[in-house]
Every structure is written in C-alpha cells, then in structure tokens.
Specification:
By secondary structure, the chain is an alpha+beta fold. The protein contains 23 helices and 19 strands. It folds into 3 domains: 180 residues, ATPase, nucleotide binding domain (Nucleotidyltransferase, domain 5); 90 residues; 239 residues, no CATH class.
Length: 631
Amino acid sequence: MRIIGLDFGHCEIAAAMAIFLNGVFVSMKNLFLDGDKNTVIPAEVEYEGEIFNYFKASPKHFNEQVEGNKVTAVRRDLMILLFKKIINGILEFNTEISSGEQIMLIVGCPTSGEWTSEENRKEYETLIKEATGVAEVRVIPESRAAMFSALADGKGRMISASEGAAVYDFGSSTADSTYMKTGKRCVEVSWNLGAREIEKALRRMMCHEASVKANQKGLELVPIDNYANLERKLRAVKEAYFNGELDEDSSVTAWKFPTVEGKKLTVTLDIDDDTMARALSDEELTMDVNGKLVTGSWKRCCKEFFRESKLLIEKQHSVKEIVLTGGASKMKFVAEYAREIFPKPMYEVTCAKNPSFSVSQGLVWVGLVDEMQEECIAAAKSAVVDSGVAMVEDLKDGLKSSMGEKIYQSIYSSMDEWAQAATDESLHDLQKRMDRNISKIEGDIKRDNKLCVENWTSGIVNEIRIQLEEALKKKLGTTLAQKMVMPQRMWDTLNQSLDKVSIDTDKIIEGIDVNSLMTNIIMWVLILAYAGIGTILIPIPVISTLLGAAVGALFASCFNDTNKDLARDEKIRRKAKNVMEKNDQKEKIISQVGAEINNAVDSQVTAVSVKNDIEAITRSAYEIMTLKFEI
C-alpha cells in the first residue's frame, strides 16, 4: 500500500509519498501533480468554462453555493472535481503509482471540531473516497502533521510537546495556532488572516487604479465577482517576491479590465518593496474574532494574532516550543514577530525548513506510524515480557531482602546491647531497646521500599525503551526511527509518572504495614528470648514457626508471667541472645517480612496486570513519540 499525504489547502495543493528500498525508508518524495511536473498547484478547478478557487469548506458548508461571474456552483461539486483532478495527476505523472487501489490517502484538515468530530471527519472521508476511488482515506489534523515535520531542525535539536508546543500555520485563508501538550487537549486559535488577504490587497490596489483610469477616460468598468485568474497571477508574483526570486522584468503585473464600452483598460502594478509595504502595512482588513471585530493592516493583525493566541494558551497551560509553518511563514517579518512575542530563553522558535511541504510530508509520517502502531506495540510488549525484567517475584524478593536484612540487624543489635548492658535488665528493657532501634530505621525502610519498587519499574521502562526503539527501527529503518527517539528526560518523566499510567508505587508501599510488622516481630523475638532463658517450656523450633495471631496469643500468655519484669543477669541475657544468633532465625524474620510483602504486592500487582501495564506504558510512549494528541 502506498501512503500518500495530501495537503488540500484553500489556495494550494501539495502531495508527498515515502520511498522505501528493500523495506527500509530512503527518502520523502514530493509528487508531481501536473504535466509540467509541478509539486504545488493552485486549488482551483474549471466549472462550465469558469475558473473557481477558494471554495474549500468544512462538511457543514458542503451544500452551499459559490457565485461566479457567469455560473453558480455547489461547494461539494467543486471539491469533488478538484480531488478528481489531483488523483488523476498523481496517477498519470508519477510512474511509481499505477492504480488508486494501491493508495492510502492521508488528507490534512484544521484541528477544530468542525472538521475533526467523528461525524464531520467521516463525511469528509466519504467525499474524498468517492471522488478519488483510492483504497483507503484517513483525515488527520494538519497540526499533528506539521509538528511531525518539525521533529528536528537543521541542528538536530529535538522538538517535543512534553513542555507544551504551539504550531503556527500561516496558510492561504487562515492563520491557525494549535497548542499541544502530551496527554492534554489541544487549544486552537484561528483567524481569517490568510496570505490570500495580501493578494486581495494587491488586487484592490489594481482595481482602484483601474477605476481612476476609467474615470479619467470616461469609461465604465464591467462589474466582476470572480477575480480567480487575477489573484492567481498576483499570488505567483507575491510568492516569487518573498522567495527572493523576483527580478525587474517579472515584478510587473499587467491586467486588462473589461469596460461596458467594450474596450480593455490595461493596469500595471510593480511588485516592489514599496508596493508590498502598502499591501502589508497600509491596506486595512477587518475580521471577526470570537464576536470581536479586529481591524488593522496584515502586519498589525499578524502581531496581534501572536499576542492573543499566547494569552489564550498561557491562561491554563505552559508553552516552550513555537513552530512556524505554512507558506506565509516564509515572510521574514512573521518569524521576527514570533521571536518578539516569544523571546529566548523562555521559548524556542523553529521555522519549518520547507513550509510548503510540511503538512503533506508530515501526513505521510503520521500515516506510516499509525498504520504500524499495533504491530510495534505488540512486538515491544512481547519482547519486554520475554526479557524477564517484569517478574513480580523479583520485586517481592528485592523487598524481602532489603527489609528483612535491616530488621534483623536492628533486632540483633538491640539484643547485643541488652546482653552487654552494664546493669541487669528485664525483657521489658529489651523491648524498649528494640522499639527505639526499630523507630530509627522505619523511615529508611519505607524509603528503601519505594526505591526498590521504582528500580523495578525503571527496569521495565528501560526495557520498553529498548524494545520499542528496536521495533520502530525494524519497520522504518534507522534514519526515520532515529527522528522518533525520545530524549532521556522524556523517558525519565514517563518513569516518574508511571504510577499514574498503571503501576501505583505508592499503594504498594502503603500496603506494607511496617508498624504492624515490626510489632509482630518484636513480640516474636521477645517470646524467643523468653524461651531462651528457660521461662517457658515451649521448644524454640516450635516458636520459630509461629506467625500472626499465634504470636500475639502466646505473647499475651507469656507476659502475664509475674517474672516478666525481673532484671536478668548477664549470663541469662547472653543465653537469650544466643537464640537469635542461630542462622535460621534471620530466615524466619525474612519469612515474616515476606508474608507481609506478598500480601501488599499481590493486592496491587499480578503477572497479568503487569503485562497490561507494559502494554499501557508502551502505548503511552508510542503515542508521545508519534505525537498522537487528543483533539
């Protein structure tokens, strides 16, 4: 299946396709759209002998009529004609593609609900599929595609949305700002500040000049509603001007205006710095922005657009990355305004290297990564599980070893101090020593437990990183996969918030009742000590096996003994200490710790849940890497 990205703009059309060699990505190709091998063509069609343009609209406007000079057309019909024209050009002038049955067409759209709601998206996809006859159509927000194209600038700096990113797309009909932050909804701001307004300003200047000349000559101009041909000509000259490709000969635009008297009135316009300054700084336009009228020159409105969108975004969100794209972003002052409103070092402003193709090429990337998503996630998950890093028993063993060793050492130290005390001490004195020493390490135990769980989850996340990058490399090749590699800080952030994604580290730690466990072990040790000095007759091996309620019951029985507060001499105390020095007593303590840990871990984590967690984490990482945001 050939994945083709189509930037179906209000003013221009561009399309791109990924080229693979032996299953490995080689390059991105901008497709030829006509016999002159143009990779960008005007978004216009001929309908009953008249040229129409600027008719693209969202599904709710499909059935509206568009007035021409001589005929009236329906937007839906014009869009269908243009899609047919595009697909015919792709099939005819690109030898790699022989049939629409080979094509998955990824078409961009604005990020607003008017386009991206389920109902509207489906209606748009249906129109495109019926018009083109391709195998599959997907409609994707242009902002995601533009962000994909800006993954790395010329210096290779990684651009991410983890700290908030705003894509500013300056197109022919609108200026759109789309804010994205990983896991957050988009914030979209759209003004009718397209580059077409500059062409209309130039056209108004020519019309005004024609009107003046007509009055001077006593002629009357024929009223015209459709200036598609003139605006197309002015657009070409304007583009050449901003690309630095205009010379003295090509800068002059001439147009013949028809008059009622049947004569043609020729008007010329020299597109130089003075003319463009008038069009951008003197000619006023008025637009409705959320019920408020904004009036000013194109330049003034452009700066105001940056200011207003920034205020709206930063009311509730933080933003770091600013990405400029769209054909109009090639005007130098646009980037200058962006850097003025979003100054360094707080913000990073990046200009798309080839804004005319940012969306079409980005759409190809989006199509590729979305198509292979489930396969990559499944492959990475399977490899992580097979690696053994996510074994629940390993987590339990780590907690048991860490806690058991600390508790045993604290208990043994208490008994050693008690045995070597300068004066005779009772079993109650031993209990106080153990209470004091245990309280000193309680905080350390909880911290170590948390670190143990975090190290375990870190191992899982690190293995997910390795396996996910490997899965992408196998599907896309090293070059393309490298563009999607997440920086370490993003993986660290993912690991830090792992409990929010799936495994709740805090709940595991809270589930280990350290206080209760310590109390139980202290009672158990006191009973052993009691037995060691010969106060009770129950054999020590039997006591060693007691756990839980049995310990509590025996403890209550033992410490009803009237001799429990008797001070014991050094010889007796050392005899009691010797009981704890037996090798298996340490294991018994670890066994008691283990029972508590098993209950705490099993209540939060199972082998099945861990597999689900791995898939959830892998999916989250994949969607961060592929810029799949909620919209």
